[in-house]
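Title: Request for sanity check on NAD(P)H-quinone oxidoreductase subunit 1, chloroplastic prediction

Description:
We are preparing a figure and want to confirm that the structure record we downloaded matches what your pipeline produces today. Could someone re-run it with the sequence below and paste the raw structure tokens into this thread? We only need the token string, no images.
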Amino acid sequence: MIIDTTEVQAINSFYRSESLKEVYGLIWLFVPILTLILGITIGVLVIVWLEREISAAIQQRIGPEYSGPMGILQALADGIKLLFKEDLLPSRGDIGLFSVGPSIAVISILLSYLVIPFGYRLVLADLSIGVFLWIAISSISPIGLLMSGYGSNNKYSFSGGLRAAAQSISYEIPLTLCVLSISLLSNSLSTVDIVEAQSKYGFWGWNLWRQPIGFIVFLISSLAECERLPFDLPEAEEELVAGYQTEYSGIKYGLFYVASYLNLLVSSLFVAVLYLGGWNFSIPYIFIPELFRIKKMAGVFAMTISIFITLVKAYLFLFIPITTRWTLPRMRMDQLLNLGWKFLLPISLGNLLLTTSSQLVSL
């Protein structure tokens, strides 16, 4: 059988075009993920700079001002310094657990950004159980801290890891009950649906006004989850022995602080999504129905506006944990556990029962 050369060329060009389509498909599959990671990295650097500037203003001193304009590159300089520092390993520790622990702490928090919507279609995974996926993934982070403390073969590090696990368990339950109350109000576990449910009445439709008790409990629980003052018992940076990261140095030491700021940013974004209306413009349309024609905007400009509104709400909320750090003294471990189990858990459970009753009455 004789095959025409033109047919061979056509077949080859077809296979070549199909392979190019597959390559382009793989590239475009990773573009949103890499864009999100780049945005998260920039967001963490901005948080570090904001915390240093606000802390300096509260204490009436000068903050970072030499690295870049207004000291904006100081956090980047600190990260580069930690990257090139010597990575020391404990001679009698478990090297495997010691090395994997910081990575688990960071990766588990990074996965939480998959379900955060920055706009109507600006979400990597619009899942029907989005908020529960966030709670499940965030519960993995204390395991990494416990592995780090145990792998260090240091009693102070191990006790710090145990304190981190105990603190996370104590405050994970009230936080979950508050999220469940929001899901009942919105009739959905999807983060996109929760934002859309708040968009009916603009500013007055926020869950902040419908769930004020849940908002306060969520705020306290998120501060404890992020190990921020007055709940920074596991790492206690002002003490001589600093918890589960005592034996760490170099970039592994820096990963713990990256995980802390990543967790702080994701908590602020979830506050904006669950309680502050997400990406929606917050002026009630019953008063100004055609302002800027928000509903009719499309394309890049609409995406930019939605991302900007979400980030503004999240960063405005960040002033609360930053100022709390320099306002309240650290609690003792027994006070921390008592607050979680004896106060926040009953309050959040009562809030859930009230929300369930109101939803049943409205049916």
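Thanks, this matches our download. The CA atoms of residues 45 and 75 lie 6 Å apart.
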